[in-house]
Amino acid sequence: MIVKRNGNKNDLNYNLSENSKKSIEDFKTANRLASIIYAVFKKLLKRSASRNQYQRLSKLIIKVMHSGAPEFLGIRKLHQGNIGLLKGFRLNPYTLWDSIIHFQPVIAISPEDQTVCIHLPAVKAKDVVVPARASKLVLQFACCEVDADNNKLDTHLSAKLILPLKQGDQISNAKKMTMHLPDMEGKVLLIILIIQMYLQEGYKEDMGYSPAEFLSNDRKYYAGEILEASYVKDGQLVKYNGSTTDKMKEIDELNNWEEVTWEDD
Q: Where are the beta strands (DSSP E) in the chain?
């Protein structure tokens, strides 16, 4: 007689290997990290955030964690793997940020000064590629401090930088913004750029484009990306650290959403 088993976990013959159990713990850790970072995406993008972002981020975090040493299986931390893999993660895979703006933000992370500085050059009309309906661009940066050892995430936001697109050749002067992060030691820092676009409502032959405008949620008209991923350890920027072996607990969110203002550079 053949007895079929349905794989029910109550079946005495259904036993996961130790490595499988450890892999499940790492999977849970990755999902918790992805969930709390995704909450930042939702804050930045409002109606444009999607479940797809969370799923892709979770897979990438698992890849980062698995790039670390095998002896950490089951107790893996984000900083024990190659966190550089997070750099370039796109919130919107359909539109690249550098297809909209043709200037490069300069990001300077200083563990010594405990600051993150972001510099933007002067922007001219030729530096942006937008449809004729576009009335202005909105740029915003976020810095997520991920503390995997103490299971916390703190988020710092820049003020929204509005770039008007209908005021001649010069759109914006050079700008700079400094975030003070006195607790960056032992943290993974993720620098995120969001670009959104206001569009004029419509076009009429006798009137041209309507002055009324709206913030577009169309995937063609916004972009977002993790521009930088760094780990701060002993006052330096490093890629790997294998010295901690504590299991991941629930992650606390410490976002106060206070925005850091821009100034002329």
A: 106-110, 115-120, 123-124, 134-147, 152-158, 161-164, 170-172, 175-180, 188-200, 203-204, 208-209, 213-215, 223-233, 236-238, 252-253, 259-260, 263-264
DSSP 251: P
Contact status, residue 177 vs residue 193, Cβ threshold 8 Å? no
Q: How many CA atoms are closer than 13 Å to the CA of 85, on its beta-carbon side?
A: 20
Residue 42 has pLDDT above 50, yes or no: yes
Q: What are 169-191's pLDDT values in tens digits?
A: 889 999 999 999 999 999 999 99
Contact 147, 181 (CB under 8 A): no
Over residues 68-121, the pLDDT tens digits come to 777 777 667 888 888 999 999 999 999 999 999 999 999 999 999 999 999 999
The closest of 261, 29, 249, 256 to 156, measured between CA atoms, is 256
Phi then psi dihedrals of residue 15, to 5 deg: -130, 125
pLDDT of 3 above 70? no
Here the tokens at position 200 are 């004029």
Structure-token pair, residue 16: 């996961």
Tokens standing for residue 54:
């969370």
Q: Is the pLDDT of residue 253 over 70?
A: no
- Specify whether the backbone of 22 is left (phi greater than 0), alpha (psi in -120 to 50) or beta: alpha
| Chain mean position to CA 147 | 15
